[in-house]
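Bug #77: duplicate submission created two jobs. Keeping one. Sequence:
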Amino acid sequence: MSEPASISSGIAKRYATAVFELAKESKSLKSLEADVDALEGALTESADLRTLITSPVYSRDQVARAITAVAAKMDLSQIVAGTLGVMATKRRLFALPQVLSALRALIAAEKGEVTAEVTSAQPLSNDQEADLVKVLKARVGKDIKLKLTVDESLIGGLVIKVGSQMIDTSIRAQLAALRNSMKEVG
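Kept job's structure:
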């Protein structure tokens, strides 16, 4: 791991742990989970927000005012809004995506859940999602929360990541394996 990545990872874990413990103490984990979902969605959708948290062009004061306004507009809990403000004044907002990821992991662990990252060639139907959750729950032994993405380059099949395990049943992977075996023969 590179040094900047390990630094931001360490920062993220400390902020996430502090926010999680405060939310747990005040019995507001559901609110925290909703805030994490909202912030992840906002980061995904808004290039301006991504620029705000990473650009050195803005002063600490400008970033703090902007992130406070964003938190108010999104109606985030006081714990999360306050943390964003502190992160802004300390110029730590660049670690926000890692903080959100760490918070999601802490919340999932508290609830006894595991997040399965599922990439499919086309969107899954509700029945397919339910079947996949049932199969993964039987295999892992914990409640499963799906994080779904679509990648048409898979052609068909799924790529599933649960913890450190990865299951790749995509046609793209099967074609690559066939191509490699053909090279060995010829």
